[in-house]
Amino acid sequence: MSLQTANYHLNSLLNTILWENDEAIVMGKRIRTKRKVAWYADSPLEYTYSGITKRALPWIDELLLLKKIVERESGEIFNSCLLNLYHDGSEGMAWHCDAEKDLQKNGAIGSLSFGAERKFSFKHRKSKETVSLMLQHGSLLIMKGTTQTHWLHSLPLAKTVDSPRVNLTFRTIVGKG
């Protein structure tokens, strides 16, 4: 995506998405993260992760446009999008996989990044091999097939990053709605 187009989308997403602090159940306690999230979908789908169930908001035009781009580039069809707002490099995501029962098994996830360039890492569950790449402003990463079965992924903290990153993860939720 061109720099001008990526800048437009970053600004639009920062100002039009209904962001809220994420919540999770950790060791039996409900915590609120600094990271903010939003959940949009075709219908009021529910999605449960980290012990918390979210109910989707209806698509807005900006997200429908980006969904169409990701679907064209990936050859996949998505019915929802979980958005993450990392204010700076002090916020990240620990090792995890996106294999919740609500997600289509071995379904693709289209991960579109805007804002600060950040390192994104994969770790093989058995061999512990790691692979890292830099997700650039306006870049698209497609995770598909058995990626979530065999690999964990993370967004490591980055002390030198002092600007926001918005990440859209287009997904397919099944059996809900």
What's a quick, concise take on this entry?
The protein is an alpha+beta fold and 177 residues long. It is 18% helix and 44% strand. The longest helix is centred in the first third of the chain and has 14 residues, at 3-16.
Task: Give an account of the 3D structure.
With 177 residues, this protein is of the alpha+beta class. It has helices at 3-16, 61-74, 147-150; strands at residues 20-26, 29-41, 46-49, 52-55, 57-58, 80-86, 93-96, 109-115, 118-124, 130-135, 139-143, 151-155, 165-171. It is globular and about 40 Å long.
Q: Major sheet, described briefly?
A: 7 strands, mixed
Tertiary shape:
globular
| Helical content band | 10-25%
How far is it from the N-terminal to the C-terminal residue, by CA? 33 Å
Based on secondary structure, the structural category is alpha+beta
- What is the arithmetic mean of pLDDT? 91
Pick out the low-confidence regions.
none
Query: Which percent range describes the beta-strand content?
Result: 35-45%
CA radius of gyration: 15 Å
Number of strands: 13
- Helix-strand sequence: HEEEEEHEEEEEEHEE
Number of DSSP helical runs: 3
